[in-house]
Amino acid sequence: MLGEDEAEILLTRRGAVGLVTLNRPRALNALSLAMIRAMHRQLQAWETDDSVTRVVLRGVGGRAFCAGGDVRAIHALARTGRSEEVDAFWHGEYALDAAVKAYPKPIVSLIDGLTMGGGNGISLHGSHRVASEGYRFAMPEVGIGFFPDVGMTYALPRLPHRAGAYLALTGATIGAGDALALGLATHHAPAARFDAIVDSLAEGDSIEAALAAQADVPPPPGSVMAHRALIEACFSERDVTGILARLDAVAAGEAGSSEAAFAADTAALIRTRSPTSLCIAHLQMRRGGAMTFAECIAAETRLAILLMQGHDFFEGVQAALIDKSGAPAWRPATLDAVDAAAIVAAFEGEGGAHASPERDAGRHS
To answer: Is the residue at 4 inside a domain?
Structure first.
């Protein structure tokens, strides 16, 4: 048996609170399949435990609430042909996200530091999301040849000002001010007051009262809200090429302005991302707003399994996390070479397991 200091996830009851503590600080609290399964089982147990009236999620270490799923482990498993274990991870992670979304009791996430990918999956779909002064949100999957998953097909298109499309296609990081303005976070409190929040919730105090008692003046909105009109105009285009053209036009037409600089930086960032991933993410943002959560999770499951058969996920993880070259060689390398029909087929479940969106890319080696 592992001691508390060694266990990857701590699941305890404190008064009225079922407390989930992510305990992998050296891995930025990235989620392993064992953590996912343990959390899911415990949520199921607490659901029928009348002594638990609310669940609280925390991460240790201060650097990250949760940096997402353990993509290094997924990369290693897929590279060695252990596809059943890879599929088990995606199914397990997405089932947990769906359980959080449907949970009948309040789930309060106390978010300090970075929250990416799967960290957003287990927090964003819950009822209360408390952002600390160090909160940083990102869905950077297009930068590793993947796509914004964990229910983001549902959540991001529902953000105002096309901010979800901006976040999906750039993978940009935003702070608490923008997150509160967009609804990604529901409350703000300093990280130093998180213990007091847990204590109050454990005593059975009203959740709103407990959060209000520890609240601080929220930070001002950041660049997303400052440039929301530009984002809405540019990211309303019907394809990624159109978005880039609009951004380029703003950058050229308003040279020297803050809008031009933001547009130029945004376009440059998008151009570093996997073309296949960009096309998938854009389709998600176009379709997801009219889909149920269950439909979104089903589409994401098909896409995740499909991309394990391609090139860019392996190339992207290698370049970003393993050799850290920062220079992935995407295949295909351009937007117009991506097979959009194959992406739509996979998204809609039409032969998705056999179609490849990476035209001429072949299988990973």
So the answer is: no
How many residues are listed for the chain in this entry?
A: 365
Residue 21, CA distances (Å) to 29, 106, 113, 343 in order: 9, 16, 14, 37
- β-strands 136-138, 187-188: how paired? unpaired
Residue 142 and residue 283 in one domain: no
Q: Which residue has the tokens 């996997």?
A: 274
Beta-bridged to residue 59, according to DSSP, are: 22
**13 strand-pairing partners:** 18
51 domain-assigned: yes
Q: Are strands 136-138 and 174-175 parallel, antiparallel or unpaired?
A: antiparallel
Residue 352: per-residue pLDDT: 39
Mean pLDDT confidence for 10-31: 98
Taking alpha carbons only, the member of 154, 34, 31 closest to residue 101 is 154
Mean of pLDDT values over 164-169: 98
* Beta pairing, strands 128-131 & 187-188: parallel
Domain boundary among 196, 214, 232: 214
Q: Using one digit for the tens of pLDDT, what is the confidence trace for 173-185?
A: 999 999 999 999 9
Give the confidence band of 3 by pLDDT, cuts at 50, 70, 90.
low
Tell me the average pLDDT across 257-274.
97
Domain with 295, as residue range(s), is 223-348
295 and 335 in a single domain? The answer is yes
Both 237 and 208 in one domain: the answer is no
The rounded distance, in Å, linking the Cα atoms of 111 and 67 is 11
Separation of CA 227 from chain center = 22
- pLDDT, averaged across the chain: 94
Kindly report, residue by residue over 56-79, the tens digit of the pLDDT: 999 999 999 999 999 999 999 999
Per the DSSP assignment, residues forming a β-bridge with 17 are 14, 54
Active-site residues: which are they? 69, 118, 141, 149
**Whether residues 27 and 158 fall in one domain:** yes
CATH number, domain of 20, equals 3.90.226.10
Q: In this structure, are 19 and 44 located in the same domain?
A: yes
Q: Evaluate whether residue 256 is within a structural domain.
A: yes
pTM for the predicted model, two decimal places = 0.94
